[in-house]
Structures are given as structure tokens and as C-alpha cells.
Design brief:
Shape: elongated
Helix content: 25-40%
Number of helices: 3
Structural class: alpha/beta
CATH class of one domain: Alpha Beta
Order of helices and strands: HEEEHEHE
Largest sheet: 5 strands, mixed
Radius of gyration: 28 Å
CATH architecture of one domain: 2-Layer Sandwich
């Protein structure tokens, strides 16, 4: 009877890598990312109008975006602004250190036209050189 088993009495190290713990960790990370990714969306929810168009203004690193939500509320990025009259000084201050004075306006399609015109006037009054209107491509 042999004392070491089939391999002549000595134990050898496994030459294969056990990938099961690695796969388990990767699956847990995948689940974590799948759960947290929808939570990373920030901003104001806006139902943009659909328009067929060609790209207009070139993209900048960090565009200044003014949003008008469905209820007529105004926001610059995540910061809420009470009314269009208070929007002008805020935009002036935000554009003071920027080279290009361009702003993107995204307004919900259900916002009354008068409210959008008020916001447009406040933006232009702030000295904005280029104003882009944000829309989305029509769904097929």
C-alpha cells in the first residue's frame, strides 16, 4: 500500500486557479452597479419636444443649462430659481468666468409658451451670446 496517494507520496499544489470566488465577487459588483446606476441620474425631469434637426451648437465641456419643468419652475443645473427676474443676475454671475457665453434651454413640452418666452428674455438680458434650445429626436 502506498502512503502518499496516487502521485507517489507527495502532495502537489493545484496548477489551476479557482475562479469561483472571483466570479462571485464580480456578480455582486454587477448587481450593485445595476441597482445604483438609475440613482445617479440627477437634474430636473423634463419631457422634451421631439424635433428633427441637425446638431446646432458645438458641445462644450460643461454647458450652462437652464431648465423649465412641467409646472413652470426654473432651474440652472440643480439650483432652483424663483422667477425669471432673478434668473438674469444668476446667469450673469455664472457666465462671468467663461469664455463663451452660451446657454442651453430645455423646457418641457407642456409648459405654456409665455413662460418659455419670459425665461428666454431673462437669458438674453443676461448678455448671452448664443442660446441653444434642447430637444430630442422623434421616436420611431
Amino acid at each position: 500500500m502506498e502512503l502518499g496517494g496516487r502521485h507517489g507520496g507527495s502532495r502537489r499544489a493545484m496548477s489551476q486557479i479557482n475562479v469561483t470566488p472571483f466570479v462571485d465577487v464580480m456578480l455582486v459588483l454587477l448587481i450593485i452597479f445595476m441597482v445604483t446606476a438609475p440613482m445617479l441620474e440627477t437634474g430636473v425631469e423634463v419631457n422634451l419636444p421631439e424635433v428633427e434637426h441637425s446638431p446646432g451648437l458645438p458641445e462644450t465641456k460643461e454647458p450652462l443649462v437652464v431648465t423649465v419643468d412641467r409646472k413652470g419652475g426654473i432651474a440652472i443645473g440643480k439650483a432652483a430659481v424663483e422667477n425669471p427676474a432673478k434668473l438674469t443676475p444668476v446667469i450673469r454671475q455664472m457666465l462671468a468666468n467663461r469664455k463663451g457665453k452660451e446657454v442651453f434651454l430645455e423646457a418641457d413640452r407642456d409648459v405654456p409658451y409665455g413662460r418659455v418666452v419670459q425665461v428666454l428674455a431673462a437669458i438674453k438680458k443676461a448678455g448671452v451670446e448664443r442660446l441653444g434650445m434642447v430637444s430630442q429626436e422623434p421616436r420611431p
